[in-house]
Write a structure and sequence with these properties.
This protein has 2 domains: 175 residues, Flavin prenyltransferase-like (Rossmann fold, 3-Layer(aba) Sandwich); 215 residues, Rossmann fold (3-Layer(aba) Sandwich). The protein is built from 13 helices and 21 strands. Helix 9 crosses helix 13. The mean pLDDT is 90. By secondary structure, the protein is of the alpha/beta class. The strands form 6 sheets. Strands 12-11-8-13-16-17-19-20 form an 8-stranded mixed beta sheet, sandwiched between helices. The protein has a 5-stranded parallel beta sheet with strand order 2-1-3-4-5, sandwiched between helices. The chain has a two-stranded antiparallel sheet with strand order 6-7.
């Protein structure tokens, strides 16, 4: 029965149930999703099937429950791909330590893991395990990997567990998981129909075939901004220099090495409604790259590197013209006189906003997990408290959405 005011009408949840005593709560979660108007299809791991049966899940969900990747009938038309395509959201509840480890490793050794590896849909995991397993460094590392890939997490809760231990590890209660599902499937998408260009990471400017000029940028902030914009419904093109970061989910990524390649990729991505230039682009490159490795000669002076300026990507794309994005956001990574340099950069390069931050070594911001920014606009400076780079990205994406909406109404 669908309740009045149902929030999930027309939404399809693929529920993956892994092994653990908390698997019995999946039955109540299915009831709640269906009362909210959503459809549910279940995938059981071998461990999950030790606690709840496919027959029970089929009776509650009124859809077939799946478990066997080698089923001739289910896999006749690549069933694991179809399961993912038919869903709006994949929920893993409970998510055991084993399944989380297999997800992080990219394994595809059963139907559940294969569906999770093959999907391009958002994924929500609700971990449930012994407190010692939850706190083990391997699980901590696996969760960090999954979250960096864009997997959403709810819980676990703290409390008494079936193993007679107390602490974090309990599966979140079904109403809380339902609320997380509703938030992911019904969140406002103010940037739907908008195209946003984002640059991220460093550039590498070759000196010779084995050496290059670079900087310490990790790409973490730019990638987080791309993910946050996509979460608000934008079609995002991310032009990234060489980084170790995973691609943000739902984002078109163009990988480049040099500043000139980055400029070409940005221009090819236009038109765009907004552009965020978070990349730390090298200011200079070699006047002429050596075709051979520069050798050290005993007793000889070190070679002189003849440098020339790289193209100014921000200034080039912020220049007035038919392809200029409506909102151009630049970054100013400074070590001194930050606000003075940021405002000068905004005016000189015709940017609408500048995101300024202090990247002095003592701050730990360059390559770190946190940022402390000052948003410089024609209206003045808005200083944000130090926070995680993901939260900075979320706030900046919301401000971009507000600015584009206000322009549309003007």
């Amino acid at each position: 029965m669908t309740l009045p005011g149902a929030t999930l009408v027309g939404k399809h949840v693929l529920l993956v149930i892994s092994g653990g005593i908390a698997a019995y709560k999946a039955i109540e979660l299915i009831r709640l999703i269906r009362k909210a108007g959503g459809a549910v299809t279940c995938v059981l791991t071998r461990g999950g099937a030790q606690f709840v049966t496919p027959l029970t899940l089929q009776a509650i969900s009124e859809n077939k429950a799946f478990s066997d990747i080698f089923s001739l009938s289910d896999e006749n038309e690549m069933g694991h791909i179809q399961l993912s395509r038919a869903a709006d959201l994949i929920v893993v509840a409970p998510a055991s330590a084993d399944l989380l480890a297999r997800m992080a490793a990219g394994m595809a050794d059963d139907l559940a893991a294969t569906v999770l590896l093959a999907t391009d849909k958002p994924v929500l995991v609700a971990p449930a395990m012994n407190v010692r397993m939850w706190g083990h460094p391997a699980t901590v590392a696996n969760m960090a990997t999954l979250q960096a890939r864009g997997v959403a997490v709810i819980g676990p809760d703290a409390g008494a567990m079936a193993c007679n231990e107390f602490g974090p590890g309990r599966l979140s209660e079904p109403p809380a998981i339902l609320a997380a599902i509703e938030a992911m499937l019904t969140a406002p998408r103010p940037l739907a129909g908008r195209h946003v260009l984002v640059t991220s990471g460093p550039t590498h400017e070759p000196i010779d075939p084995v050496r290059y000029i670079a900087n310490r940028s990790s790409g973490r902030q730019g990638h987080a901004i791309a993910a946050a914009l996509a979460a608000l419904g934008a079609r995002v093109t991310l032009v990234s220099g060489p980084v170790a970061m995973p691609d943000p989910p739902g984002v078109a990524v163009r990988r480049v090495e040099t500043a000139r390649q980055m400029l070409d990729a940005c221009q090819a991505a236009l038109p765009a409604d907004a552009a965020v230039f978070a990349a730390a682009v090298a200011d200079w490159r070699m006047d002429s790259e050596s075709e051979r490795k520069l050798k050290k000669t005993p007793g000889a002076a070190p070679p002189t590197l003849a440098l020339v300026p790289n193209p100014d990507i921000l200034a080039t794309l912020a220049t007035a013209g038919p392809l200029r994005p409506r909102l151009v956001v630049g970054f100013a990574a400074e070590t001194h006189d930050m606000l003075t340099h940021a405002e000068d950069k905004r005016r000189r390069k015709n940017a609408d906003w500048i995101v300024a931050n202090d990247v002095s070594p003592a701050t730990g911001i360059m390559g770190g997990m946190e940022n402390e920014i000052h948003l410089v606009t024609p209206a003045g400076v808005d200083t944000w408290p130090r926070m995680g780079k993901d939260e900075v990205a979320t706030r900046l994406a919301a401000r971009i959405a507000e600015a584009l909406a206000a322009e549309a109404l003007a």
